[in-house]
Design brief:
Largest sheet: 5 strands, parallel
Strand content: 5-15%
Order of helices and strands: EHEHHHHHEHEHEHHHHHH
Radius of gyration: 23 Å
Strand order of the largest sheet: 2-3-4-1-5
Distance between the termini: 45 Å
Length: 296
């Protein structure tokens, strides 16, 4: 219909926000442009990190490999170009690319607040031009870690979303002291049609179904479903990793009693601890490859 929308998916870590988006994308990829921008906890003080990630996604072409830089330059030239030099300069700056002398001259002397507003307008202009070709789904991951400028840009996009064939999907945790919660409240108050999906942890019976789906019926897992639920409190991601850790123990020859003791008394309490325990069980060469890759 050419009308946009904004959907927020709110849940604690590991409940399945990203998984829900992936399932939707797998079922609705045809005819849509799907792009993602992710905020990172250690870059929360750096401006426009998720926006630059989003721009890279817009510029990435199938089969182009990792040559995203050339794609970004080509994309800005295509949608701005010589006819709109001011738009090209603003998008180049927003994307974190090197400015040429003419662009530097155009942007020099602009008040920071004015510059931020113009970059927001330039980004919305870019999205408008691209979404005319194909409707777009923009997924903003981990908005609870979004920097102040990116949050303001997401808000500006959201409040003008009905004029664009764009669906914005915001993923964040229910942390009411963060900027994302203030954004959420503002959208509830001022954006008609704003939709919210709140995900909860799994129930005990749902954990049992997940165990059956992942491990199959008639295995040692069936008798351990209550223990798994008590340990994970229904967190799907935590539950999946715990099931894999149990499977590792089973394949190593441990019986149900040993595995039950492992879950209740030996296994680390945190999700990170479970992953570390699984890594410790790897062959030394495999562990070395994984450790090297994590540094890279």
């Amino acid at each position: 219909e050419g009308k946009g929308s904004v959907v927020s998916i709110i849940a604690e870590a590991g409940i399945g926000k990203s998984r829900l988006v992936k399932e939707c994308r797998d079922r609705n990829a045809e005819g849509l442009q799907w792009v993602e921008g992710r905020s990172l906890a250690h870059l929360e003080a750096v401006s426009y990190v998720p926006v630059q990630d989003m721009i890279r996604g817009m510029a990435r072409k199938p089969g182009a490999g990792e040559d995203v830089l050339s794609g970004m330059i080509e994309m800005i030239g295509r949608y701005a170009g010589e006819a709109l030099p001011h738009l090209s300069a603003l998008l180049t700056l927003l994307a974190g690319l090197e400015l040429d002398e003419d662009q530097k001259k155009f942007l020099s002397g602009l008040d920071p607040a004015v510059l931020r507003g113009r970059m927001e307008d330039a980004f919305i202009n870019l999205v408008d031009r691209m979404s005319v070709e194909r409707p777009m789904v923009m997924v903003w991951e981990d908005v609870h870690w979004s920097d102040r400028d990116s949050t303001a840009l997401i808000e500006a996009m959201a409040l003008r979303s009905t004029a664009l064939p764009v669906c914005q999907v915001l993923l964040f945790r229910p942390e009411k002291e963060d900027r994302c919660w203030a954004l959420h409240q503002k959208l509830k108050d001022h954006l008609p049609g704003y939709r919210v999906i709140e995900l909860d942890a799994l129930t005990g019976s749902e954990v049992a179904v997940l165990i059956q789906n992942l491990a199959g019926a008639g295995t040692v897992f069936g008798s351990l479903s209550e223990v798994v639920f008590e340990r994970t409190e229904g967190n799907p991601f935590y539950t999946e990793e715990l099931i894999r850790a149990i499977r590792d123990r089973q394949q190593a020859g441990h019986d149900e009693a040993d595995i039950r003791h492992f879950i209740t008394s030996v296994l680390p309490q945190s999700f990170q601890g479970i992953v570390a325990a699984r890594i410790d069980n790897l062959h030394p060469e495999d562990k070395h490859v994984l450790q090297t890759a994590s540094v890279m």
